[in-house]
Structures are given as C-alpha cells and as structure tokens.
Amino acid sequence: MTKKEKAAYVIEKLEELYPKVPVPLDHTDAYTLTIAVLLSAQCTDVRVNQITPSLFAKANNPFDMIKLSIEEIREIIKPCGLSPAKSKAIYNLSHILIDKYGGEVPESFEGLEELPGVGHKTASVVMSQAFGHPAFPVDTHIHRLMYRWGLTNGKNVEQTELDAKKLFPKELWNKLHLQIIFYGREYSPARGFKIEKSPIDQIVGVKKRLPIA
Questions:
Q1: Which end of the chain is more exposed for a tag (fewer CB within 10 A), N or C?
Q2: Is 139 a catalytic residue?
C-alpha cells in the first residue's frame, strides 16, 4: 500500500471505530483546558481528571489561581508528577494571562507558546479543542502509530506532525488526532501489542521499532 492508500484506510477505519470522540481531559473553557494539558505531561489523562476537580474548585480562572501560593498549587497537583515545575508554570502563566491578555487565553500559537509550561503540543491541543482551529497535536500514541504504520520516519514528533498534516485532510485533523489516540490505547499499545487484535495494523502492516525521538 502507498502512504496515501494507508492514510485513506486509517481514516475510514477510525471513523468506523470512533464516530464520536470525547476530549479526554475534562475542562470547561480554554483556561481549564490549558491547565489540564499542562498537567498531562508525563501523567495519564485519567490521573489529571482525578486531580483537576480539586484544583478548579479553588481556582478555575487566572484571577483566582494567583490568589493561591505556588506551594498550595503544588500540594494539589502533586500526584501528577513534576509538581514543582508545573505549579510554578500554572502560577506564572496565570499572571501573564492577567497582565497581558486581560485574563483570557490567547487564541494564537504564538501567544500560547510564550506561556510558561506551554509547548507546541499543548498549544496545538488548546487551539484545536478549545478554539476549533485546525491543528494536529502529536503525543506518544500518535508518534508511535504513525511510525508503526509507515506514515512517517519517526525521527521526532515535529517531523511526525508535518507528515500527518501532509497525509490527512485539514478538516479532519481535530477529530482524527483524537481517534488515533483512542485507537492506540485500545488496539495498538506500546507494550503487549498483538497485531491480530489490531484491525488497522493487520491491513497497513507495521514497523517494529520506533527510533528514539
């Protein structure tokens, strides 16, 4: 199969398996989504969703967040890991949102990526899931599967994102990246992978080893 044929099959099969895909991280607006995605670094979505209710009950907007101390934020988010860095980032980005944007989350990649703790992937999630702009956030599942399916060389997540954007129609990006994540978790995990239980992998073929990003 060519890459275009593989991509077409992936789209068709994922739409069949996941016609509707919820956003994995619980949130109510762009701010709470930004905080949730920031917390998800090296932490599962399930764990983040267990922690954010306590945090957002005290502060679900930047004005209330800066009323908390960094230590208070850290105590709440500690189960997520990397809490020293994440608590500082949450506190500092909240200050920046107030000082520079009137408390609103900026609706641009440039504005988002200037915030502490917000990299390109986080910005892409916020742009796609909070604001509806076409974006293709690449997490570990997407990076792994795009390589496994022979749709990228797998050298780094930046290249994987570029390859995904070339292969898949722009109007599908926001839904498709979530569909791939759900598929990776259910059918094509990093460990314990069995091709006979993975409907897409059976058709498009697989590469075994993912180069170190």
A1: N
A2: yes
